UniProtKB/TrEMBL annotation:
Residue spans crossing the bilayer: 38-63, 70-92, 119-141
Keyword terms, alphabetized: Membrane, Transmembrane, Transmembrane helix
Protein name in the entry: DUF1772 domain-containing protein
Protein species of origin: Brunnivagina elsteri CCALA 953
């Protein structure tokens, strides 16, 4: 659930990307920096992200002796960690830069910052899709086939 909550926030960025890339400087900066429409993504989203990673690691530990289930779970945990590391490396520095824009002039090359912020969020969503998919697969390979057949009847 936590991984899906974290992914839902990233999907917001991914789905908004085409429209937001058409915003002019004034609109993009106003919505993103001054109005900070993503304000809760930093607090609530961070909680989802960190707890999703931690619970995936705990889950991998708990299923460590279950063969392929372990590897699928470990893969999911690794991809969730990769998404977080990607955010730290590519999004967080842009957030720090945008905070400066509140009291300083907006740089002429603002598009460079916007592009990194927008595309890093999109890539982050794709990484989380893979992570969540691997976690779902880990559950599916654990589901007994005989039980699945009976549930269809």
């Amino acid at each position: 659930m936590l991984a899906s909550f974290s992914l839902s926030l990233s999907m917001t960025h991914l789905l908004e990307l085409p429209q937001r890339m058409q915003f002019d400087r004034q609109l993009w900066v106003r919505v993103t920096v001054f109005e900070n429409v993503y304000k809760l993504f930093g607090s609530v989203g961070a909680a989802f992200e960190i707890t999703a990673i931690l619970t995936a690691i705990v889950l991998a530990f708990l299923v460590r002796k279950r063969g392929s289930t372990f590897y699928w779970t470990l893969g999911g945990a690794i991809f969730l960690m990769l998404a977080f590391m990607s955010w730290i490396m590519f999004v967080a520095p842009m957030n720090a830069e945008f905070a400066k824009w509140l009291t300083n002039p907006i740089p002429l090359d603002w598009r460079q910052y916007r592009d990194q912020w927008e595309y890093a969020h999109a890539i982050n969503a794709l990484i989380k899709i893979i992570g969540l998919s691997l976690l779902v697969i880990s559950v599916l390979v654990e589901t007994p086939k005989k039980r699945a057949i009976h549930s269809e009847q």
